[in-house]
Amino acid sequence: EVQLVESGGGLVQAGGSLRLSCAASGFTFDDYAIGWFRQAPGKEREGVSCISSSDGSTYYADSVKGRFTISSDNAKNTVYLQMNSLKPEETAVYYCNMLDYWGRGTQVTVSS
After folding, report:
1. Over the range 84-111, which residues count as b (16 or more CB within 10 Å of their CB) and which as e?
2. For residue 23, what is the enclosing H or E element?
3. For 6-34, what is each residue's pLDDT tens digit?
4. Distances in Å between the alpha carbon of 49 and those of 9, 37, 111, 112?
């Protein structure tokens, strides 16, 4: 059974940092790209970043380039999202994704 479990969310002031983790199980980690999405209240879910665990290639949405860093630890089957210089408008539930599978999300709240 595929499982994606997010953690690391919380409350942070604008300009602060958080590191999210996505622990994956139930599939061959190296074979798939894993992504982070977020959904703010009243808005559609949007892609933030993704990483190919096999070759380490990455993608970032323009809005987070230079502030967010995605990485993976293949030994731990875990993907991380380091988020720096957070903005209040980035308050959202952050989800981990692989193909059609989603985690339950972790809440990130950025106060102004």
Report:
1. eebeeebbbbbbbbbeebebebbebebe
2. strand 18-25
3. 999 999 999 999 999 999 998 888 889 99
4. 16, 7, 22, 24
What are 73's two structure tokens? Answer: 């630890």
Q: Which amino acid is at 111?
A: S
Q: How far apart are CA 55 and CA 59, in angstroms?
A: 12
Say whether pLDDT at 55 is over 90: no
Please report where in the chains the tokens 């894993």 appear, as a residue.
34
> Which residue bears the tokens 């809005």?
63
| Confidence at residue 28, expressed as pLDDT on a 0 to 100 scale | 85
Report which of 59, 40, 57 is spatially closest to residue 49, judged by C-alpha positions.
59
Give the closest residue to 109 by CA, choosing from 18, 15, 11: 11
Q: Residue 93 and residue 43: Cα distance in Å, rounded? A: 11
